[in-house]
Structure formats: structure tokens, C-alpha cells
Amino acid sequence: MRAPVIRIEGLSKSFVLHNQGGVELPVFRDIDLEVFAGECLALHGPSGTGKSSLIRLIYGNYLCPQGRILVRHDGRVTDVARALPHEILDLRRRTMGYVSQFLRVIPRVPALQVVAEPLRAQGVDAAAAEQAAGEMLTRFNIPERLWHLAPATFSGGEQQRVNLARGFIVDYPILLLDEPTASLDKANRDVVIDVIRQATARGAAVVGIFHDAQMRDAVATRVLDLAPAGAAA
Amino acid sequence: MMDGAAILDAPLLSARGITHSYGARIGCRDIDFDLWPGEVLGVVGESGSGKTTLLNCLSAQMMPSSGKLTYRLRTGDQADVYALTEAERRMLMRTDWGFVHQNPRDGLRMGVSAGANVGERLMAVGARHYGAIRDQVTDWLGRVEMDLERIDDLPSQFSGGMQQRVQIARNLVSGPRLVFMDEPTGGLDVSVQARLLDLLRGLTNDLGLSAVIVTHDLAVARLLSHRLMVMRRGEVVEQGLTDQVLDDPQHAYTQLLVSSVLQT
Amino acid sequence: MTQARTMTDGGYNFAYLDEQTKRMIRRAILKAVAIPGHQVPFGSREMPLPYGWGTGGIQVTASIIGLADVLKVIDQGADDTTNAVSIRRFFARTAGVATTQATEAATIIQTRHRIPETVLKDDQIIVYQVPIPEPLRWLEPREAETRKMHGLADYGVMHVKLYEDIATYGHIETSYDYPVLVNGRYLTAPSPIPKFDNPKMHEMAALQLFGAGREKRIYAIPPYTRVESLDFEDHPFAAQTWDARCAICGAGDSFLDEVITDDHGGSMFVCSDTDHCGRRVADGHRGDGE
Fold first, then answer.
1. Among the four A118, C165, C169, C276, which has the fewest Cβ within 10 Å?
2. What is the distance between the alpha carbons of residues C37 and C222, in angstroms, rounded to a whole number?
3. Residue A82 falls inside a structural domain
4. Of C151, C271, C287, C289, which residue is the catalytic one?
5. Domain region containing A74
């Protein structure tokens, strides 16, 4: 039997707000999940069910206090919940890509370099990385005149496409997508459908939140329904 | 290709139980951490939280009251930093380490030219060919985006941002593996700060530098550091991956810090 | 009786200083000789002339001079300038020693700013008057730090000064008090002699003693000691040279001073070492000046 690329065991998450009387906000409890290479798992459920939190937990962006998040990395299994910071960074550099709804803009850095950066972090030389970045930006219909500008001044849709180009420039074995198409038009949504299908075809495991059903139906090979907090998943 | 395995093999700097008190007052207490090669550690906390005391202890500019600091040399040998002789310590500080002060006046010789400031480390370790020194100085001033016309001008004639860039070049010219920075962008205009941050981020990425950066500015910490240590009253209250600490803070004090940042 | 002769007119002690002070200074000198180029602190005394007039050199001379010595004093190479004349008289009166202007006749030569052109011998001592004994002072104002730098032979910063010269002038412009490394160990200020004289310090047969009165430091270079002037591989040390010859004696290998002769820009070059120049003239050498 094939081993899963991601295996989640007994994962629970809640937030404690110390400065608001120590109130505890449960997100979900006791989740078990396996994701295999070549599939695209869509997380589904009303808002507040922790879809985004689950993705952030897998990416190591949220702290995992309880449960295990096992990710296959470098031929071994790493538990994101226990990994040291530099191990998580290595995991992100080589194994897990993440595309959120918002581009975190860095002052002064032009779009081309924002997109090229994940390749640069893998040690690809600047020229080759920028060449690949240019191809990705072209694919996401970002006109060349914008490539050398910092994306801070771009529209929401343009920023999101830069973000997608950055997320898909490396052939990560795992891709985490948090509503990556929220402000895209039809033509660009089709590009996203295309790149996701390509990713699963080459064997990537994709976990995503897709706000519209059409998009979800086009890419998802499996749907996971998340129940509101408190109920069993 | 960046060699991931090499990065993961052993910490570069290990601090254990670093404690320093000024008489009855605690500067920092029981600080433990490992800094890995290529890793940038941010230390945040408000004024008086012990950040600067810790930085001075880690960079061996100050001997802590107790604690042990181990540094892995290029040879692979582990050096007990507080047991080094003065000569060994100085050699380390001008070859393998760098220290960028908040106030460039503390890190530059204001009475000699920008070029001489940058070249000093090379001469200190025995470079005796003027032309070769000059070439390296020129290269580094270019990398920190200095106008090369100003290579022979005194730093006192420069703006704060330019002085800071000269200080960075002065530290990096010897190809250090570890750089300590104390509020490197403090006291600069926002636009100058952004440019300097971008420069620092690029340099640490490209050179694979390890760094310990003290700042009270969470945006600076997010931009530059991989990992964050939150200090309060001399103690570390929380540490972890930078985005994790900032996006999912666990300790009441960190939650307060994060929620106190003005959104623009 | 010897004792009677040492107490010269006016009731001064022999060579002015009391015996305890001289012993203290001799101990400092012995230590300085034992550690070539290292600055040894000493209890500098008030002297009957102001700092800057050679109080350090005078105290060293006073501590080593004996009745049999013959003293020569020069200032900028000349025996007949105010400072040289008054120091020579000071010792003639307080120690009753013989004085001379002839370099080879002297056993002790006290100097400000020059080394004589005549090659010194192993039975001579040259005493330098030193204003700033610390060669690192220009770059490092903290005394505690410069001492540490000497202790660790941490001298790289000294090249920063030479670097600045080349960056500014295209060559090493420092022409006086040009820093030297003594016996491969201590960085040392040769006092404000012209760098023309630096090569004479290397392997010199005579003992070289340095006294800084205001800064309260004594240092020494024993006979036949290695003295290297700092430089860069691509900008090696070079002494000054002149296109002219001495207008009086015709010497082409001595240190020359330019002397203004009229109000119309006229000038001539003459030997800075008056004894050397005079002896050459006595030997029949002539320049084309007048």
C-alpha cells in the first residue's frame, strides 16, 4: 500500500486569549487525516470551522499543541508539531509550498524577484530563477512592464497572481492553497485550475480551500467536510 | 546548490544558562538556545527587557555572571567562547563574527575614510597589498549600494543610512559566519529603513549568514528573522519560528506585543 | 675627590636629578632595553624647562651620563639652535661634562628630530626626545586599549593610516614619525625624525634610547636590532630624495633643508646636519650655492 505524504493524527487546536480574560476558543478536536501523492484534497465547511487553521498547522505557521502532523520530507517522516524551527524552514524550502489569499509585500523588492525567491532559496542561480519567474508571471498574465516594480502598488488581483506564480514556481511535493483564487477573474481561475492539475499529475499532494464550488469541482479529487467547532470532524 | 544536509548537521552557536546581573538587578536570566548555520534569530521585547544585555553576552563583549557559550569554528572544533584568550577572542571577532551597532558612531572610526573603515579588518588579519585591499573595499561598498565617489570621504559627512551601510560593509568584508546586530535600523527614517532592511535581507540570504538581531520592531523581526525569541524582564517567555510566534502567539506578553502593533 | 666635582656650582646634584630618581630611570631603561620597542612607564620629574623642550630626553641623558662622557646635542640636525644650545649648557653646568659638536667625538648624542649623517658606533648612545610615544594614538585614543593592542601585537589598524595616505595622495605621505616594527614585535614611534632617517635605525651599532617627559614613557632599541618601516607590498617604504645637492658642501646623500634666501622666491638647499656639512667643507667639498 502507498504511504501517505501527509498523515495527521489526533490533531486538536484552540486559541487562548490571555488578554481577554483567558477565554479559550476551540477550533477543532481530534482530527485524523491522510493525504496521498497525486490527489487534491479540498477542505470544505462554513467559515469558522478551521479550514485555514488546518492549512496553517500543516505549514507550521500555527503551533500544534496536541496531535501529530507527519510529513514525508527527504525520504523520511518529519513531525511538524515537534520539528525545530530550522527543520520547518527546510521543509518549506524543499517540500511544502503555501499560497495564501494575501501577498505579504516586502518593500522595494520587484515582482520578478518575489516570484524567483523560492528558486533562489533552493540555490538556483539568479539568471535561471528570473527566467523561470518571467515564464510564471507570463502564465498568470502579469504584463512585463510590471515585473520590475514592487507589487505594493498592484491591484488585489495582480497581487494574488504574483503570489500564485511564487507558489507554483517550485515543483513542491506538497502544495497548500488557502483561497488562492478569491479575487481572480474567469480566465485567471482557469490558469489556476491548469497549474493545479499539472501539479497533481506530476505527483504533488494538494490541500486547498476553494471558495467557489466550480473551482472545487474542477480540481478536487476528494472533499473533506469540516464540522463547526465542538462537533466531531 | 544550497546543501540542506550541511545546514542541519550541528548548531553554530549554543548558549546554555546565560545569566547576567548588574548587582541586584537582573539583566538576563537562564537563556538557552541553539543557533543553526544560516539561521537568523530575532530577539524582541520592549526597552529594558534584557535584549541588549543578552546580545552583549552572546557577542562576548561582556562576560555574563554565569552560563556557557559554545561556538563551532570553521575547523569543526567547538570553542568555549568565555574561555578564549583575549587574542583568540579578538581574532574571532574580526574574522568570523561581526557586530553592527545601532549607532554607527559606535561601530565606525569617524576620523578615517569610509574605505579605510571597510578595509581595516582585512589589514588587521594581515592584508598588505593596497591594490587588493582597495578592490575588496570597492566591491563591498558597491554591494551595500554606496556611491563609490564617496569612498575616500569621512563617515561624519554621511547621512545616518549611509553610515549604517558603511558599518555593514565593514563587518561583512571579512566574510563572517555570524553577525550580531543591535537595532540595525533604529533611528533611521522609514524610507531609509526599508532600503536597509531589504539590503540586510538580501545579504543574509545570499551569504548564508547566521545572525542574532535585537529589535523592538516586530515588522523588522518578521522581515529579517527565521526564528524569534520574545524577552520580558530578562527572561525568554516564548520562542519559535518567527511567523508562528507572530501569527499564533502563546504567551500573554507576546499576544499583547503583537496586538499592540499599529496596522496601516 | 670625585664627590666634590659632582656637586657643581649652585649646589645642584650631579646632572640635576637626585640619585633615587636616576636609579628609577635606569631601571626603566634596563627594562626598555630588555624588551625592545616596548614603552616603559617612569616617574617623570618636573624639569627646569617646559614640556615639549626635551624634558624626557634630558632625564634619560641625566640618568646615563658620567664624568667621562662627551655630550652632543642637536635640534633638527643643528648644534647651534636654541634648544640644542640650552640643553648642552644645562649639562655642562650641572654635570660638568665635556661637550662637542663633532658626532664621532660624542659618547652621548641627545637629539630632537634627526639622526646624524655620520654612522654611529657601538660605543655611542643616542637619546631621542619624544613628544608622543604612542604610535597607535592617532587611531585609538584609549590608553587601556592601546596597551592591550601592544600586548596582543594587534597592529593591523596601523596600516589604516598608511591606507589613508595612499587613498588621499596616491602614495604614503607620512614623512615624519613614520611607524616602525622593532625586532618583529613592538610597534614603535621613532619620534618625529624624518623617514629619511628610518633606515639608520635598522641594525644600528649604537644604543637608541627614547624619553617622553610629558607622557612619562621610556623605550629603547638595543644595538643591532631589526627595525622595519611599515608599508604595503605595492607601495613599499621609500625615504625622501632631493633633486638638489647641498649648496654649501655639495652633498647629494644627506637630508636637506630648504632655506629661503630673498623676498623673490629664491631658495637653496643645505644639509640639515651642520656638523656633517662643516666637516665636508673642511675636507674641501664645495657646493654651487652662495
1. C169
2. 9
3. yes
4. C271
5. 1-95+203-233
Instruction: Please state whether at least 3 CB pairs lie below 8 Å between chains A and C.
Output: no
Residues of C with CB under 8 A from a CB of B: 139, 148, 151-152, 154, 156-157, 159-161, 163-164, 166-168, 231-235
- At A181, the pLDDT band (50, 70, 90 cuts) reads confident
How many domains does chain A contain in total? 1
Rounded to whole angstroms, the Cα distance separating C16 from C5 reads: 13
Helix/strand/coil for B143: helix
Q: What angle do CA B228, B229, B234 make, to 5 degrees?
A: 160
Dump pLDDT digits (tens) for C23-76: 999 999 999 999 999 999 999 999 998 998 999 999 999 999 999 999 999 999
Beta bridge partners of B69: B15
Query: Count of alpha carbons within 13 Å of C276, Cβ hemisphere only?
Result: 23
In a domain, A41, yes or no: yes
In a domain, A220, yes or no: yes
Regarding beta strands A222-225 and C227-229, do their DSSP bridges make them parallel or antiparallel, or are they unpaired?
unpaired
Q: Is residue A10 part of a domain?
A: yes
The predicted structure's pLDDT at residue B185: 87
Cβ atoms of residues B169 and B142 within 8 Å: no
Place of cell 662627551: C70
What does the alpha-carbon distance between residue C9 and residue A52 come to, in Å, rounded to a whole number?
103
Residue closest to B199 by CA, chosen among B227, B171, B230: B171
Give dist(CA B249, CA B44) in Å, integer: 13
- Evaluate if residue C3 carries a pLDDT over 50: no
d(Cα C54, Cα C50) in Å, to the nearest integer?
8
Catalytic residue among C57, C213, C277, C287: C277
pLDDT, position B3: 38
Stretch B234-258: mean pLDDT, rounded? 94
Contacts of B101 (CB under 8 A, 6+ apart): B107, B167, B182
Residues A122-148 have pLDDT tens digits of 989 999 999 999 999 999 999 999 999
**Per-residue confidence (pLDDT) for residue A38, from 0 to 100:** 95
Residue among B116, B103, B105, B170 at smallest CA distance from B143: B170
Query: What is the pLDDT confidence band of residue A211, given thresholds at 50, 70 and 90?
Result: confident
- ipTM entry: 0.91
Collapse the DSSP code of A33 into the 3-class scheme (helix H, G, I; strand E, B; otherwise coil) and give the result: strand
Q: Write the CATH number for A59.
A: 3.40.50.300
CA angle, residues B216, A15, B217, in degrees to nearest 5:
10
Active site residue C66: no
Q: Which amino acid is at B157?
A: Q
C10 is annotated as an active-site residue: no
